[in-house]
Amino acid sequence: MRILYVVGTRPNFVKTAPVIAAMRSRLPDGHHVIVHTGQHYDRAMSEVFFEELGVPAPDHMLEVGSGTHAQQTARTMERLEPVIENEKPDLLVVPGDVNSTLAAVLTAVKMGLPVAHVESGLRSFDLSMPEEVNRIVADRFGSHLFLHSEEAIGNLRAEGIGPERMHFVGNTMIDTLVALEDRIAAAGTAAKLDLSPGSYLLVTLHRPALVDGPLLAETIAQLSHLAQRMPVVFPLHPRTRKMMATLGIEAPEGLTLTEPFGYLDFLSLLTDAKAVLTDSGGIQEETTYLGVPCFTLRANTERPVTVELGTNTLLGLDPAAIAEIPATLASRPAAPHEPPPLWDGHAAERIADILSPPDPELLTA
Ligand code: UD1
Q: Looking at the annotation, which residues are catalytic?
């Protein structure tokens, strides 16, 4: 069996690493080809993740880089097509909802290549989010849809997708967390930043709706105010750093603004945080698994399970709501928490079971 895995952005690497590992272990004689589109290309956004997650070096680097949505998608399609032509895979595996995902799915489906979509069925019902468009296309054309939460079943059914394509397997991002738990615990990143565990707010913000306009300055002002009450650590995504420069927003005193962290350092900081403020999808999930209070600065979430079963509070797309965080934390009882169903570290094995069922002879041997 020849399988092509397409990844392009930081969260893609985290979601796909366990799938590649499970498939390689299941099919040691298979041909496993990794394509990195290059949507993310800074060392801190890309290489570090391959090293830390133990993903083999990509077989193909498409180096599409940044651009408008059309440029990024078109460049990826143009460069991926000859790779598929030459590699002649039986299946393309792609995670998530980024532009690399959209481009990979469109290229594959036009070439008659089946697509397995990891993290299928999430919906924010907000078509102004580029990711929502990407998700809908990936699920419309995917042949194997791997779901990580139960609400995805209803979302896909409502779009006329039949149950034969849906597989509720759990969350591969949590597989990575579980696999690296010991190394995360040993990283001790808070101490390296002179922070006491359980004392600080960890912030990540990068969505265009928040950072590409006037809300960014308001958010930084609110964070600066909050920093008088608790330490605030804010690793800057390149988009956010660029927008701060473009909009002339100075780094205020009291906020610890840093470069992006690698996976182990970031998860160490996340584990030890008093709370997290984010607009990232993956971080809503990781905090849910870890039981760390999470505040999401967005109007909606495509991950309602993190609000219903997890520790996530949806603040709305309103920087003023940041001021409520200390009071909410003080009044909230420490709820016992249990991760959502199948967020147990074994999702990728379930995917491998479906894509390549275990040999019954080996099982009885
Ligand atoms: C992309 C995804 C988003 C995901 C995020 C994770 C889309 C539409 N968006 O957003 O869903 O949550 O990745 O991080 O696919 N840049 C660098 N170095 C890099 C990468 C980007 O400097 O390695 C800068 C460039 O100025 C670029 C900007 O960041 O223009 C935005 O990058 P892009 O890949 O377009 O989208 P993200 O905001 O990273």
A: 206
